[in-house]
Amino acid sequence: MTIQVGDKAPDGRFHVINADGPGSVSTDELFAGRKVVVFSVPGAFTPTCSQEHLPGFIEHAAAIKAKGVDTIACMAVNDMFVMEAWGHSAGAGNEVLMLADGNGTYAAALGLELDVSGFGMGARGQRFAMVVDDGTVTQLYVEAPMEFKVSSAESILANL
């Protein structure tokens, strides 16, 4: 079943690279008492993801946070080392938290998995963005196949 507005975000854990090296963050740590924008991309270093999706959130991070958002997080079915390298190469810095959903477990828990085996990419997460306020999904924007409109930073900013 696909997550819906008003649902509690499912429990889960993401892998990240911290100052001390590999680590993880639970959904409780990420969402409890906080307003978080999570956007998901099919893959790090892929064209739309690298040229538009992540850069848009980096560019508009201050404006998004000025609307009461505590954290902006990018999620992809990639390992934590790839996510760290991608964030570094894109200049994400402290603006966007890079979350690795390496096995696609969280994408599946949301009901937003995507099979792109035909492109040699296996199981991934769909392109989407959601606003989670204290653990509850308050906004959800899932892209139609091969589109990039409703989950952009500009769209999220306009809807906050």
Characterization of the model:
The chain has six helices and nine strands, in the order ββαβααβαβαββββα. It is an alpha/beta fold and 160 residues long. The strands form three sheets. It has a five-stranded mixed sheet. Strands 1-2 form a two-stranded antiparallel ribbon. The chain is globular, with a radius of gyration of 14 Å.
Give unreliable regions as ranges: none
Share of residues in strands: 25-35%
Q: Give the radius of gyration.
A: 14 Å
Alpha plus pi helix count = 6
Major beta sheet, strand line-up: 5-4-3-8-9
Q: How is the biggest beta sheet arranged?
A: 5 strands, mixed
Distance between the termini: 26 Å
SSE sequence, one letter per element: EEHEHHEHEHEEEEH
The shape is globular
Question: What structural class is derived from the secondary structure elements?
Answer: alpha/beta
Helix content: 25-40%
Number of strands: 9
Mean pLDDT, rounded to whole units? 93
Brief descriptors of the model:
160 residues, alpha/beta, 5-stranded mixed β-sheet, two-stranded antiparallel ribbon, 6 helices, 30% helix
Short description:
It contains 6 helices and 9 strands. It is an alpha/beta fold.
Helices, strands, pairings?
Blueprint: E1 13-18, E2 21-26, H1 27-31, E3 35-41, H2 47-59, H3 61-66, E4 71-76, H4 80-90, E5 97-100, H5 105-110, E6 113-115, E7 123-125, E8 128-133, E9 136-142, H6 153-159
Parallel strand pairs: 3-4, 4-5
Antiparallel strand pairs: 1-2, 3-8, 6-7, 8-9
